Amino acid sequence: MQACELAALILLTVVSCSRQYEGLPKTTLTLEPPFPEIFTGETVTLRCGVEGGSAGWKYLWYKDSEDTPVLQTAGRSITGDSYTITAAAVSDQGQYCCRGQRGDQPLYSQLSDKVTLTVSEGHPQAVLTLQPAWAQIFTGETVTLSCEMEGGSADWGFKQYRDGREEAGCSDQYRSRYGDSCTISKAQNSHSGVYWCESASGQERSNAVTLAVSNQWMILQTPPQPVIEGDTLTLRCRVRTGYTATRVDFYKDNEVLQSQAGTELSVDRVSKSDEGSYKCRAWRRMRGSCYSSDSEEVRVSLRERPQAVLTREPAWTQIYESERVTLRCQVQAGYTDWRFTWYKAERNGPVTQDYYSSIDGDRFTISSATGDHSGEYTCKGERTGNPSYSKTSNALTLRVSELFSTPTLTVLPGASVWEGEAVTLQCGAHINKQGTQLQYRYSKDNGTVRGAGSQDQHSIPAAGLRDTGRYQCEVEAAGTGLKKRSASVSLTVREGRPKPALSWEPAGEIFEGDTVTLSCVVEGGSGGWRYLWYKDRQGAPVYQTDSSSGTGAGYTISAAALSHSGEYWCGAGRGRNTSYSQYSDPIWVNVTALFSRVTLTASPGATVKEGEALNLTCEAAVKKKPRPELHYTIVRDGEPVTNSTDSALYSIAITEKSHTGSYTCAVESQGVEKSSQELHIEVQTSWHSAAAAGFSVGFFVILLIVFTLLLLYHKIRGFPCITGGKRRERSDQNQDQAAGGVELSSQAQQPDSEDIVYSAIDTSKHNNTKKGKNLCKLCL
In this structure, how many other beta carbons lie within 10 angstroms of the beta carbon of residue 609? Predict the structure, then answer.
């Protein structure tokens, strides 16, 4: 709703509530207690009065508007001239007015002046209590009102409100004030009313308590209202001294609850359904007759059980070991005499104070947090009277992180060393909070190590037998007092120098191409050694390895060769001062050739005739069992002709001259390769091939001679035309139309062919005779 709209609504409400009705009786509206501002959970009564008396009047109540009357709902009751709100909520605040009506043709009174009621979140800071804790007493009895406030407050004043006006409080002859309490020694009817206390400045006030002083012979006593949900409600039916009741009946909303000889009724763990009007009826005998009387009705209202609120100082959830943290439990219920109980989810019961923590009032303080303080916390308030306890608070999780980790002590180069070796004690701790400074201390067999500083390392330059023992380191965070100790670590110092043991794998016969590993192990198994390998009495080591695992180091020959055969031994050293061990006993490593020989053979032989078959076989004599896989390569004049792991045979079905050459075969396995000696293969020409070749050459020569003679003859005879060995001449009288010459063509087959040979002779016009030119067109 816009601000202007809200202002207009309030203005209309004010106008409606203040509207005057001429000639009608006036109406007044008062608040009990007379607080324009109350707190949530408190009880307030609006009382409506009509000028001239209240006989026969019924009352209508309005809130913020006279258009719709306020109806009786849960927690809001209308009784006679009063409208009571128990356990007020923020929604109850507003502007109230009332008026009366009576008669069959209703006569209305004027609307009352408006009364503004404000309901604020929270609770009054001071608490007013009664002693004895009953809101109803007989005339002549004594009652004490006490005002309490957390932290204390000076100059409290006690106020009384009765019949729409404020009374003198604690100032008549029957009332005496001492400190924060007011005692009424002989209560009168005039002492009935609503009481509260407030500071001189008026800024702090307590809750309101209604006190009823009765001169009847019987009253129903209840605790001050409202009663807290979950508490025990005790009703007490009292009769004045001198009267005796034979039986007492208790009623709620005019229905019998219980009839008994006793005078008290307890209702455990009250809830909203227990709200209502209560009274008691007492029976007595007088002169042989049985009489009964009813007490005045007392309305019992309930208020929700107060909630405990748990907070933390500092507010953040992440804290570190040794830091201070305070948990505070508060109950917003207007009482100050709470006792608090703290709970931790991981425990089967309340948390108690110990060396690291303390409990003071509403505070649980952990002065030096540890990991054990991590967890989910709750709290609850308790009182001796009502409410006897609060609701359990919200859960608050506290996480205590390590300021630094538990230190770990490491002995380098190992837990077992030899005399004269350098030893380093390394104390390691991880810092989780920046800026934390750590200090280190070292102990041996529970005694302080001499010469050890406050750093994370302590060195023993040359260990002696006296340095054998169990060591620990302790780490402290500067300025916190937080200390942590490492687990103990043993250090053994051996006398003399170690002698390594040398072995190799595999332990059987070693062939070319095998992998063999020599292992050098120092007695005791400590790590950090550097291993030196020697062969055949050479002065310098042939190999050097490191080992940090403590199980020794290996010298591996991945592809053994015959040159690796020989005598081996090892030595070891470690530390900054390079303390060396003794030499190991030597061992002999023998590498056997994988192939004894590789041969290449030819079948039927190294000399073959063209057209014959030829088989070349590659053979290798392998000593290793089981026989490894072999790879064969056959080479002719430096070029591979076959490459296979399947077969050692190279076959040529029909040889040619081109197969002549020098052949070798190579065999490879396990990275070892060996070749055979060269084998020369000769492919010879056969007799029928030579005869065929000779015939072809002779025929070609004869044909060439004949052709040459023909050319000479043609030149001499004037180009005659020869066919079938006879000359043929032809005269043509129409040669004038000839083109002047005919081109003759021929085709010649290769010398080896027996086909017809064609020759071509080109003629041109040489005669100028008119007729009778002889022209040879074609020679066949």
Answer: 13
Strand pairing partners for 435?
A: none
Separation between Cα atoms, residue 676 and residue 600, nearest integer Å = 6
Q: Which residues pair with 553 in a beta bridge?
A: 520
Please check whether residue 502 is in contact with residue 587, taking contact to mean a CB–CB distance below 8 angstroms: yes
The owner of tokens 């999780």 is 397
CB-based contact 325:301 (threshold 8 Å): no
Helix, strand, coil shares of the chain, percent, nearest 5, are: 10, 45, 45
What is the rounded CA–CA span in Å between residue 40 and residue 45?
14
Q: How confident is the model at residue 617 (pLDDT cuts 50, 70, 90)?
A: very high
d(CA 102, CA 25): 12
Statement: the pTM of the whole predicted model exceeds 0.85:
no
Contact 403, 436 (CB under 8 A): yes
From the options 2.60.40.10, 3.40.50.1010, 3.10.129.10, 3.10.450.50, give the CATH code of 305-401: 2.60.40.10
DSSP annotation string for 437-489:
-EEEEEEETTEEPTT--SSSEEEESS--GGG-EEEEEEEEETTT--EEEPPPE
Pick the CATH number of 3-120 from 2.60.40.10, 2.60.40.1760, 3.40.50.2300, 3.30.530.20: 2.60.40.10
- State residue 116's pLDDT score: 92
Distances (CA, A) of 572 to 516, 581, 654: 20, 5, 67
The β-bridge relationship of strands 143-149 and 510-511 is: unpaired
Q: How many residues does the chain have?
A: 780
Q: Is the dihedral of CA 403, 408, 412, 417 positive or negative?
A: positive
Least confident segment among 80-94, 477-491, 681-695: 681-695
- Does CATH place domain 216-304 in 3.40.190.10? no
**Residues 576, 420: Cα–Cα separation, whole Å:** 11
Residues 6+ apart with CB under 8 A from 164: 28, 30, 32, 47, 49
Strand pairing report for 516-521 and 264-267: unpaired
Query: Residue 698: helix, strand or coil by DSSP?
Result: helix
The per-type count for the chain, helices as H runs and strands as E runs, is 2, 66
**CATH code matching the domain that covers 595-685, chosen among 2.60.40.10, 3.20.20.150, 1.10.10.10, 3.40.50.300:** 2.60.40.10
What CATH code is assigned to 408-494? 2.60.40.10
Q: How many CB atoms lie within 10 A of CB 568?
A: 21
Reported as a single tens digit per residue, the pLDDT across 87-145 is 788 889 999 999 998 887 778 889 999 999 998 876 666 778 889 988 899 999 999 98
In Å, the largest CA–CA distance within the chain is 202
For residue 500, the 8-state DSSP code is -
Amino acid, single-letter form, for residue 642: T
Give the SS3 label for residue 101.
strand
pLDDT in tens, 278-318: 999 988 877 666 778 889 888 888 877 888 999 999 887 77
Partnered with residue 543 across adjacent β-strands are 533
Assess whether pLDDT exceeds 60 at residue 150.
Answer: no
Where in the sequence of the chain do the CATH 2.60.40.10 domains occur? 3-120, 126-214, 216-304, 305-401, 408-494, 501-590, 595-685
Q: What's the pLDDT band for 510 if we cut at 50, 70, 90?
A: very high
DSSP 9-58: HHHHHHHHHT---TTSPPEEEEEES--SEEETT--EEEEEEETT--TT-E
Q: Smallest Cα–Cα separation from 175: which of 210, 139, 142?
A: 142
Query: Does position 55 have pLDDT exceeding 60, yes or no?
Result: yes
**Residue 379 Cα to chain centre, angstroms:** 30
Give the C-alpha separation, 650 to 637, whole Å: 15
- What value does the CA radius of gyration of the chain take, rounded to a whole number of Å? 64
